[in-house]
Design goal:
The complex is a heterodimer of chains A (101) and B (256).
Chain A: H1 3-26, H2 34-52, H3 63-78, H4 83-100
Helix pairs in contact in A: 3-4
Chain B: H1 4-11, H2 13-50, H3 54-63, H4 67-78, H5 83-94, H6 97-107, H7 113-121, H8 125-132, H9 140-164, H10 170-176, H11 179-194, H12 196-212, H13 218-255
Classes of the chains: A mainly alpha (101), B mainly alpha (256).
Chain lengths: 101, 256
């Protein structure tokens, strides 16, 4: 392994780990003010929204790929299907789409 | 007559409980492992074409464990960017985990900082999404279980991707790029059905993120959109409940 590559990997590892670990060890079990708590409880849903959109549109050059895949996942999930079924269904639908177009 | 397993359970109930929590985590991590499969395979494949060695490819996945920034690093290495810029960009992209870890910290059981330090390493978007949407308090073995499976899938499949390269049919590679987004959608939908507030939280964050990504780096856009939506919708809702409470008080006064 080249030295530059080693520096890149270790450096990337350290700067990725710091934001992940800092809150967990500095706030071990400490009670937070109720307002902060309420906002933090909202974070998962807001984060999911931001993680999905607009990223899903750009998974392939063809924007319809993301739209069709996303709508498939949404419909299957609305039926209450399990996570893995949702993932497999959207992959299957997109494979069919690629064969047809 | 008890068999050996039952006997152990009787003697060490807490160990048994921890083990089952860990196994539950492993099970919940399955969907992430499946979602990582295509992304990690592709990472391995691109790493090979970028000129990394197998050891460097697996090493990056093992030490960094962050999809988006690893892809970014490859593209920067390909155009000959310096180490410092790559590391700084990685930091910018991954700073969003600060927010996610804070939210998990609020939900997680109190535990030894070393154990928290271990599972913090695995706090990717997907591990956060799976653990944070689970009902109730989070135990350390559960978070570790989810992280372990996700991590193994990421590291092993990066190596496999490097080795098999293009042999995976292109059509399948393309379709599999939806996997992680499908996972996120599947995690969000059950909660969407429960509460209108959750629909607003997700939609407002998505909308803001779409605008912000036009102007600022993705990592910052996600963190700002998430914070603004989580705070903004909270303010809106607490105002609404206050107004409803006031309205209720008026009715109570008139009737009473």
């Amino acid at each position: 392994m080249s030295t530059t590559m080693l520096i890149i990997i270790l450096g990337m590892g350290i700067v990725t780990y710091i934001p992940r670990v800092l809150p967990l060890i500095t706030m071990n079990g400490k009670e937070m003010p109720p307002r902060v708590k309420a906002v933090l409880q909202n974070v998962p849903y807001a984060a999911l929204g931001a993680l999905i959109f607009p990223g899903v549109l750009y998974i392939q050059e063809d924007i319809w790929f993301g739209i069709i895949g996303g709508i498939t996942a949404l419909s299957v999930a609305l039926f209450g299907a399990n996570l893995i079924i949702v993932v497999i269904s959207s992959i299957t639908v997109l494979t069919i789409y690629s064969f047809l177009f | 007559m008890h068999d050996k397993g039952d006997f152990k359970t009787m003697l060490f109930p807490s160990i048994h409980k921890q083990k089952s929590e860990f196994l539950q985590g492993i099970y919940a991590g399955l969907s992430i492992a499946l979602g990582y499969l295509p992304v990690a395979l592709t990472f391995g494949f691109i790493a090979e074409t970028t000129g990394l060695t197998l050891l460097e490819t697996i090493g990056m996945s093992a030490f960094v464990f962050a999809g988006a920034s690893q892809y970014m690093a490859l593209s920067l290495i390909a155009i000959g960017t310096g180490a410092l810029e790559i590391i700084f960009t990685t930091f910018i992209i991954n700073i969003r985990h600060l927010l996610m870890s804070t939210a998990i910290s609020e939900k997680a059981e109190k535990d030894n900082p070393i154990i928290k330090g271990v599972y913090a390493f695995g706090m990717t978007d997907e591990v956060f999404a799976v653990t944070s949407t689970k009902a109730g308090k989070l135990t350390s073995p559960y978070i570790l279980g989810v992280g372990c499976l996700a991590y193994s899938s990421w590291v092993i499949n990066s190596g496999i991707g490097y080795i098999i390269g293009t042999s995976l049919p292109e059509i399948l590679q393309k379709s599999m790029s939806i996997a992680l987004y499908a996972l996120f959608i599947a995690l969000l939908v059950p909660s969407l059905k429960k509460h209108r507030k959750i629909i607003m939280l997700a939609c407002f964050a998505a909308f803001l993120n779409a605008i912000l990504t036009l102007f600022i780096p993705t990592g910052w856009a996600i963190i700002i959109a998430t914070l603004a939506s989580a705070t903004g919708i909270e303010v809106l809702y607490s105002k609404k409940t206050n107004m409803m409470d006031a309205h209720q008080e008026n009715i109570d006064k008139e009737c009473g």
